[in-house]
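quick one before i forget lol
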Amino acid sequence: MYPRFEPSVVERMPFIFFTGKGGVGKTSTASATAVALADAGKKVLLVSTDPASNLQDVFSQALSNEPKELDDVKGLSVCNLDPEEAAREYRESVVAPYRGTLPEVAITQMEEQLAGACTVEIAAFDEFTGLLAKPDIHKQYDHIIFDTAPTGHTLRLLKLPTAWSGYLDESKHGASCLGPLTGLDEKKDTYETAVEALSNNDKTLLVLVTRPETSAMSEASRASKELQGVGIDNQCLIMNGVYDTVDQSDHTSKSLFERQQQAIKERNNALQPLRTFMLPLVSFPLTGIDHLRKLYSDETSTKFLVDEYSLDTQKLHTLPALVQNYAEQSPRVIMTMGKGGVGKTTLASMLAVGLVEKGNHVHLTTTDPASHLYERFNGSGSEKLKITQIDPVHEVQEYKEKVLQQAGPLDEEAKEYLEEDLRSPCTEEIAVFQAFAKVVDASDDEIVIIDTAPTGHTLLLLDAAQSYHQEIQRSTGEVPESVEKLLPRLRNPEETDILLVSLPEATPVYEARRLQDDLKRAGITANHWVINQSLYETHTTESVLAAKAQYEKRWIKEVNESYSTFTVVMPWQAEDTIGYDQMKQQLT
């Protein structure tokens, strides 16, 4: 077995990035490492660059873009680089000098130009690179630890410095869907310094966090290769949540142990060369400073907990009951939403099979580049089931060609301007959004089930319905009918049902709850919840797993009583359900 990960592994590195698939424990591992280094006398800054950050849950206090010193841990400061907040600050910094000078209509136009997703991206990137490139930050802290987002988002974030540096090199004018590029060109040196720091093996360490599960290790392997491709070679791997307190007489315990050992044995070839460490599966939740300190101590098990939470199991439902509910209500669009790693793909696939078996035509689709939808069906299916993926690369190319064609004959300068505008990162968001709208539009004839990307990306995708409406008009001169129809359909509970997916743990529940609130503000109701991978439902008696199961009851109870009108609890399963027939069997 691998040696246990200790904070001493990273103590010589000023910049430390934790990354991996959603739900593998990046936040808890990064947070525990930050606390341990600070306890050892180091000055540490812990930063989240994830739009769906949960650092405030881990430390049980409100955080902002500004580093906040923690009273309970001397030497540790924590901040959340909230892209939305950063965008507001960036937008105001650009617009403020013109207030009182330009007419109000011009100010309004500037604000609208800076209201798109590109502004959010560039503002978050600006703060991210600022931390990497500012010498005064280096002087203040021995370590800057980045608790990065799930893999797909992380890859975009870490590739940004090169992408934006290239974009600024090629940009010959100051207008694009980014809005005014004021201030960006002046920061080009800062961006290049950040790129240099990222690929400097003496300064930067990438810690890939995974779990002893095939899908999580697959994602870690993909991330490792892609980041090596952008020059980030100094990498190590943490196998988190390794279960070693097996009870051979307990079916769940034995199954979990065997499943993990098999996954470790078959670990991906790309991960073999990496220095590899492990952290044990612990029975307690990694929230609160006391629990974070326990992770790197020998005290990784707790006494069996008293049964503090009673559950009215009569009010909890099964997956077949949810399928029956949908069969009777007949929504045309079903979206599974939640933090990465909670099982949205599995659930969307099972729902699709269940509804096909009830006689419906179903279109199952994904906008997540990291989805395993095709692998899950393993080539099997039904004539009534269509499976598709929205491919961003293809959609962008198609969108660019359409815009250039609709623009008609242009002189060389106008054509160069338009082509430059289409190089902006906003183009991908618009193209994908239009494809998403087309899929939803097809639900006139079939039930569409959308297996969405992790939370931060999902919110941006839904926000596109408003944010890019004007951008689409400006770029192409027309708004597709499917785009105009999308938001009203999403807001109509008779047509659309949003299914929030969570695990029975603090962080995934908090994340799904925030998503529920965000949807509510957008006029979209989401009252159905699925709590996935529940140990409580397995009735395990092994001490570590049973203690975790007792902690779960609190979250199942809270969701069922406070947030949900229809709660499904799904037990932890020893085997992934692969193939149409196997999924069908589980629904009977």
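fyi The radius of gyration is 24 Å.
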